[in-house]
């Protein structure tokens, strides 16, 4: 079955530690996205990538980094510079630049202890 | 003004009721519009695209009003299973990139 997988589902980290969230898709989609969702709030864009080896900052990129070395993979690193990292992180992809809807992975819930 | 605005609700409606949500957007050049459904602690899932001519999928009807810059979602004969948060999404294409903006969501609770 085609889809987007994110791992782990739940992640706990201590303050000051970097942590990497995985996002893999086998949909052959070119564009991939990372969002953050806080309780009672909408999705905010962290980074997106329209093609391999290219990515752009979203609205809240500070404290995060990404890479896009392969079409199917778009990992997100939450660095110690991110002051309030506890949130629900969602990865998404789209198949075409124009008009196509986004498909989401199941999300990773990150908690900083 | 926010780029995309939704009434957060909650909308508490009895089973069988008809309920409508609106979502306004600020950039008149926006080109694609969607409604997503998000259940508690789950990822958003596409409910339906929104076309200028309006579109219907069973009990759900979506409409776009470009002149007034809003999209709407109508749910008829509400079911308990419709309880969720409904997110509108507006996409603007510019310079080869697409800017995707989500609304904060409208929470619907269907009551027995």
Please outline what is shown here:
The complex is a heterodimer of chains A (113) and B (112). By secondary structure, chain A is mainly β.
Structure overview:
With 113 residues, chain A is an all-beta fold. In chain A, 0% of the residues lie in helices and 50% in strands. Chain A has no helices and eleven strands. Chain A has strands spanning 4-7, 10-13, 19-25, 31-37, 43-51, 54-57, 64-66, 76-78, 87-94, 103-104, 108-112. Chain A is globular and about 35 Å long. Chain B has 112 residues and is mainly beta. Helix content of chain B is 0%, strand content 57%. In chain B, strands 2, 4, 5, 9, 10 and 11 form a six-stranded mixed beta sheet that branches. A five-stranded antiparallel beta sheet of chain B has the order 1-3-8-7-6, with no helix packed on it. Chain B is globular, with a radius of gyration of 14 Å. Chain B starts with a strand and ends with a strand. The interface between A and B is medium-sized, with 25 and 23 residues.
